[in-house]
From TrEMBL:
Annotated InterPro entries: AraC-bd, HTH-like
Pfam families: AraC_binding
Keyword annotations from UniProtKB, A to Z: DNA-binding
Domain AraC-type arabinose-binding/dimerisation positions: 23-130
A GO molecular function held by the record: DNA binding
BP GO annotations: regulation of DNA-templated transcription
Protein name: AraC-type arabinose-binding/dimerisation domain-containing protein
Organism: Listeria aquatica FSL S10-1188
Source organism, top-level taxon: Bacteria
Amino acid sequence: MEQTYHNPYHNTFWEEPSFSVYKHSTNAARKDHETGRIRLFATISGHGTIKINGINYPISRGSLSWIFPYHSTSLTEAKNLEVIEISFPLRVLLQILDGPNQEQLHKMMFQNHFSPVITYPNAKQLEKLFDEALQEAEIRAPLFETLVLANVTKIILLYLRYIYKGKTKIHYHTRLESSSVFTLSFCRATQHCKSSSAF
């Protein structure tokens, strides 16, 4: 009887490319298209205004913007705007958040401090991370997905560190209160709800 070999290191997570990375330039407003992916944008130059769920956010060099699949978005104005976009499935975010410090990361991401747009103080560092991801995606050399994942992980962790900078120490049993709507929307979008004790 012929034996079949099972590779213990086989992982279907990366069987299809998970990341798309593009550079965009525009001087015109536009309505956003629907997408089933998370998108991160780094504004490299110029300025504009992005509307997310009815709220206008000014963007300029150093701005980091998050677009989730359930967000309603549009670019209401743009002047010499240049951005780099990284998009990926929701499962990539879940993988990052399920790493070390899982409970703390879930709390930081899904409680009421989340903001879809921030101005990161070190614009050069932000641009470098996005530009490296762009170069890897264009060259598509072996292991490029893993290298892009490393940059995306760092971008997300720097974002979380920034929004919590100067805030009080996290209390693990804090009620979700105003963040409950965000958490419920995320659960519906991902169909990957966690119990409240995981946050």
